[in-house]
Design a protein that fits this description.
By secondary structure, the protein is an all-alpha fold. The chain contains 12 helices and no strands.
Length: about 240
């Protein structure tokens, strides 16, 4: 039986995804105008989108945590650190995701296998070639995310006027244009992950063409709706 709370949570996750569409616009506005207020707005949007399902549950603790985070971000903005935090965020996100995928490879439940169990059921994972494919793709995501975290860290250091090396007084022989660095940090890096997801979906349909597959739209919707379950894990056993 579906919990009466479930439709509210599902709608909250859809709303959070829509909120995230404004993030790159605010981030780029901060770079182009050199105004920290846009960086603050982008950070506030990310925090709100991440916590929206819990906030809509109308419990006191999530609201107190949200207000505490907002106060911390306001203090960072007052000290002029909001922009730097926003620029470092893509590095952190990719590094954490790489670690998440990578750590699962040491278990019997690689992360892609967990996704398959949640979205398509344990029987799908037991079909020929699926478990092996899930481990291989988990490796692929680990390497892609790790490489991008490294690239973003280099960009954060090497940007022409906003990079950490310049801020700490180092002269750069070949500085990178700030606008192009910011474009990759806040738009390109996420677009790459989206493109990789779509390409992997197409490759999966070819590689496992002896099986039926859900549509890409349905898969994306199921990922959004079942994200908490994906994070917790499901005890999928792989061989």
């Amino acid at each position: 039986m579906t919990s009466p709370v479930q439709p509210v949570e599902n709608q909250a996750r859809r709303s959070a995804l829509l909120l995230l569409l404004a993030y790159p616009l605010l981030a780029m506005a901060g770079v182009l105008t050199h105004r920290q207020v846009f960086a603050l707005a982008a950070l506030l949007l990310l925090v709100t989108a991440a916590m929206l399902p819990r906030l809509l549950a109308r419990r006191v603790a999530p609201w107190l945590a949200w207000l505490g985070l907002l106060a911390a971000l306001w203090l960072l903005w007052r000290q002029g650190w909001a922009g730097l935090l926003l620029e470092a965020l893509p590095v952190l996100i990719n590094a954490l995701l790489a670690g998440w995928f990578g750590r699962s490879l040491a278990t019997s439940e690689p992360l892609v296998a967990r996704f398959i169990v949640v979205l398509e059921g344990a029987r799908r994972l037991a079909q020929p070639g699926v478990a092996r494919y899930a481990r291989q793709i988990t490796w692929g995501w680990t390497l892609l995310l790790g490489a991008q975290a490294l690239l973003l860290a280099v960009l954060l250091l090497w940007a022409g006027q906003r990079g950490l090396l310049v801020r700490f007084g180092f002269a750069l022989p070949l500085p990178l244009a700030d606008r192009w660095v910011a474009a990759w940090q806040h738009v390109g890096s996420y677009a790459l992950l989206g493109a990789a997801f779509v390409l992997e979906y197409g490759y999966r349909r070819w590689r496992l063409r002896h099986l039926s597959h859900p549509s890409l739209h349905r898969m994306l919707l199921q990922l959004a709706l079942h994200w908490p379950q994906l994070v917790r894990g499901n005890g999928a056993a792989t061989s």
